[in-house]
């Protein structure tokens, strides 16, 4: 467990403060604070353009991709150690708090998904396609209104796991170095982890490390979504657990199937499924056995479940802090 900064609040109190501040001011902070994941994404895109040459052999491309990720992890880890050193002196904990706020982006992600709902309601499928394109890897212009709504619900499940639970888990377990390494891998996976010939070797290290780091947080996110279901209208906790047990492993991702299955089962939806990428039909399994014709109202229900699960996460951090303080 991470240590206690001298002369300042403990790390779990810093984390609790960050979660509360993010919930209230996260939209504004997203515009003014640098996002480590975006910085890592740009770093990896630049490295991809320079080092991932098609004429290179597969082993060479694998080693080059691994070197890029190793460099990124070292930068993130050393930066985190520096921040923790600063945080252990006087008012340096405020710097640590700012860095945690850079890594926790739960409110900003929630707002982007809400924008998809509003776009669908005001402009139909075309406006929804524009709003969803940065939140999904699917070919958005092949999605109808129901496809956009399903993609937004899936994006809510992914964002809760990757933008909120995973950074909280990484910081609680490994401090600022863990937080920055996770956010760096989040950006690296977005840049290099997509399936396809170009990144099958160069992006293999990024995808593998991302899967390893997100294994526990993704399942914790699924559990919190399931436990939040009884507090959201017609959402069902039993459906969430049943769909996780039946369908989580059907998803192409080793980890994202868990929160997506929890969301689908809780809301009575079918997510995933076949979709078009240009003129090609990509065959994916359905997650859940509910309605596939999702609507903007279903996005609203997903956002409500996201918010309730986030409150449960805050409560979990507060409980952990209280428990450790009593020891």
From TrEMBL:
Residue stretches spanning the membrane: 12-29, 62-86, 92-110, 164-185, 220-241, 303-325
Key words, A-Z: Cell membrane, Cobalamin biosynthesis, Membrane, Transmembrane, Transmembrane helix
Keyword Transmembrane: yes
Gene name as annotated: cobD
Taxonomic classification: Bacteria, Pseudomonadati, Pseudomonadota, Alphaproteobacteria, Rhodospirillales
Pathway connected to this protein: Cofactor biosynthesis; adenosylcobalamin biosynthesis
Topology with respect to the bilayer: Multi-pass membrane protein
Homology family: Belongs to the CobD/CbiB family.
Example GO molecular function: threonine-phosphate decarboxylase activity
Keyword Cell membrane: yes
Compartments (UniProt record): Cell membrane
Protein's recorded name: Cobalamin biosynthesis protein CobD
């Amino acid at each position: 467990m991470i240590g206690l900064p001298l002369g300042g609040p403990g790390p779990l109190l810093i984390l609790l403060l960050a979660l509360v501040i993010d919930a209230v001011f996260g939209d504004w902070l997203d515009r003014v604070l640098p996002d480590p994941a975006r910085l890592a994404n740009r770093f990896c895109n630049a490295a991809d353009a320079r080092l991932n040459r098609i004429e290179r052999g597969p082993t060479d491309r694998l080693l080059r991709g691994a070197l890029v990720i190793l460099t990124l992890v070292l930068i993130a880890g050393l930066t985190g150690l520096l921040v923790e050193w600063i945080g252990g002196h006087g008012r340096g904990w405020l710097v640590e708090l700012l860095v945690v706020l850079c890594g926790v982006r739960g409110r900003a992600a929630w707002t982007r998904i809400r924008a998809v709902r509003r776009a669908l309601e005001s402009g139909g499928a075309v406006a929804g396609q524009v709003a969803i394109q940065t939140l999904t890897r699917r070919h958005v212009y092949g999605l109808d209104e129901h496809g956009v709504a399903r993609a937004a619900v899936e994006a809510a499940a992914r964002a809760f796991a990757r933008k909120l639970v995973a950074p909280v888990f990484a910081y609680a377990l490994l401090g600022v170095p863990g937080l920055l390494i996770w956010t760096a891998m989040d950006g690296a996976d977005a840049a290099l982890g997509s399936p396809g010939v170009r990144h099958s070797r160069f992006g293999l290290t990024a995808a593998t490390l991302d899967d390893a780091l997100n294994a526990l947080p993704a399942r914790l996110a699924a559990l919190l979504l399931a436990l939040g279901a009884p507090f959201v209208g017609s959402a069902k906790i039993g459906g969430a657990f049943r769909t996780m047990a039946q369908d989580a492993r059907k998803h192409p991702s080793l980890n994202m199937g868990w929160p997506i299955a929890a969301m689908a089962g809780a809301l009575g939806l079918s997510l995933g499924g076949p979709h078009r990428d240009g003129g090609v039909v990509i065959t994916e399994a359905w997650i859940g056995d509910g309605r596939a014709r999702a609507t903007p109202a279903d996005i609203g229900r997903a956002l409500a479940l996201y918010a309730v699960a986030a409150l449960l996460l805050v409560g979990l951090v507060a409980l952990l802090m209280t428990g450790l303080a009593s020891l």
